[in-house]
Each structure stands twice: as structure tokens, then as C-alpha cells.
Hints:
eight-stranded mixed beta sheet
Amino acid sequence: MKAKILIIGGGGMGTSIALHAATRCDPLDEPVLLIERDRLGAGSSGRSGAIVHAAYSDRVLCGMARDSLKQYVHFTTHTGRSVGHRKTGVLILPGESEEEREHHHTDLAMQRSLGINAEELDAEGIRARVPGIEVADDAVGIWQADGGYLEPSRTIETFARLARERGATTRTGITGPRVMVEDGRVVGVETDQGSFEAEHVVLATGAWTRVLLGELGVKWPLRVLRTEEHFLEMPPVDISDEDEGFQDQGGGGHEARFVPDPLETLPVAHPVVVDRESCFHIRCDPQEGRSRVGRLGFKKLPEIDGPLGPAEQASGEFSDWARTKVTSRLPFYGELEDRGSNASHITVTPDGRGIVGEVPEVKGLWVVTGFSGLDYTLAPSIGEGLVQMILGKPVSAFDPSFFAPDRFGDQG
């Protein structure tokens, strides 16, 4: 099989790239092919909490997150398909230091200047958004009403389905990929199931990227870190007021694909909370009747040699830490049961920014990696911008220099 663009990796980023490529390429003259070693979403993307918001301190990331959020908010309306997006709102609590407070106000002003729907809350406003939360009387927070989360498996499935509707091909169970290079240019991918010719090859392979690049003698300063989540029973939800967002929408006379997705209407106990003081984030997972708790920041995340399998669990130490942090901020979780845990991995770079672009040593080989867990927040923008780069078009989705692979020089 021959492809114009061949994508390795069937996670959130890979399927987003496939969708944008299929939208721009003629399926007969410019075929788009995505291959995945397992099922789509079997890797870290499928185990992500997939929190999405635009409350970042970096202006570039904020702008990209803003654009992605706009797509997610209107995704079902525009495509007739669901990514399980839930606009719960996101509450961001800064640290208590004076420096953190200053950053809080600077970040808020910058976000508003970009047209992001963000507002400052005082302690009373915080308690109104999250009844039962423990905050000091002088507490402040940022509220982003458009933020929330996605259902990761549904997002991947939907991106892939829309890509196929536009002419792309997805192949799973394709193992042992090896990039083929001749005279400094990519010519395709050899696999345990045969070879595929390709003019352009995209590595959307997460923690495997370092391995695939290493086989070509390319060394970049990528690190793979172990991440953990602890699950708590989700608090009960009072829907006695029959909020229409929680009602059964029914099939009516609508075309089946436009019937509201239950994942977008299941009641949640509270908004997403990002607590920078206590270094945790939590979001409800109503489909499973639980809430997911993760750690903020990378300082305490151990480096690992490669990807973790899907059955990995969090350590007891982490689960104890997560329960203690959550119940000190949200005491109503204190009497609720533990609901298990998981462990996964993320790929990071020295400066905390992802890598998007062509490998300088290999013409036609493109890489997207190192997004430090922001894959879903950035996936629509990265997918659009990378395809613009591959096709030689002006890049409008982001500033290519921000993610340029050559910015590390010889650090690898």
C-alpha cells in the first residue's frame, strides 16, 4: 500500500492528525494511512483524564488551547459526532505565596486578552461553584466556564471515524514499525506485517518515539515519566431540580448520529478542580461512578525506560497522598470509597514544550511528541498545523518555531 501521509500511532494526537490530513488530501491521489500496533487508544491516550482548559501561563499554549476548546464545544454541532465533551467548567486555585498570587493576576489578564472566557472568583464565588470546598476567606481562583473534560476513548474513536469518512484508512495490529530511509529521505515503513510506501511519515508514537528515532541515529532529550491516578467514588448528585442537561433526551425524529450522547449529559458532582497549592487535579467520571485524581507538575514523577502496559496500578503511597490532599480540600470525599487506580506515562522535553516538525536529518519524517500530558488540549491545533506544514501551506494553527525540533541542538 502506498500513502501520501502515513501516521504511526492511534492515540488522540495521531487520530487528530489523520482527520486533518484526510480533510485536506484527495483520498485517491493523496492517500492517508494510520497504523497502530494495538487497538486505537490502547496506549496512554486511552487512559488519560483528558482535562481540557486554557488556564496556562504561556501565551502560545493559551491561544492553542482556546482554539481547541472552541472546536470541542461545537464539535457535535459541526460534525454530528461526539467526543464525550463535558463543559463542567474548570476552577484553578493558585498557590498561597505572594509570587503565585502575582502570577495568578498576570495569567488572568493574558487569558482575557486572548478572548478566553475566564473570570476571577473570590472565596464566596469559589464556594458557590464548588459547594463544600475548603478555602481561606481571602482565597482567589480562576474560573473557566468553557473548560471541562473529554471521554478519551470516544474522542479517539470519533476522530478516527471522521477520518475514515473523509477517505483515510486505519489499520490496527500492525507491529514492529521501522522507518525506511533512502538517501536521507523517508520512503515508507517496514512492519512485521509487510511494508508501506509513504512520501511522509508522522511519528505520533508517544513514549515509543525515542526508540524509533534512536534506530535512525537521532537522539533528542526526551524523557518518559510515570504518571498515576487514584479513583474515588463520585459524590452523589442532587438532580431533583431536573436540570434539563441531565434529562433523557430520547431519540425523537432525529437522525441517530445527532441524538445527544449520554456522556455529554450524565450528571457530575462538581466542576474540574485544578489545585496548584495542593498539587492535584480532580475531575468526575460519571460513566464509571468515580472521580479521577492526579498529581500536578513533574518534579515527583519518576523517569522510566519506556511505556507502561495498560494494567499498571498506582502505588499505595500515591493513593494515600491523593486521598489526603483531596479530602483536605474537598471534605465530602472523606466518607467515600476508593475505586482503584491506574498508572501510565507521558513524554516530556527539557523546556516543557512539545516537539512538532520535520526531523532535520530525515526529509519527510515528522514528529509530534513531548506534550507533557496536554495532548487532548492541543490535539486539534497540532493536527491542523502539522498537516499545513507537511503540505507546504502557511501554518495558521500555531507558531512552528515554538515547537521546532532543532531548538535543542546537540542536547540529545
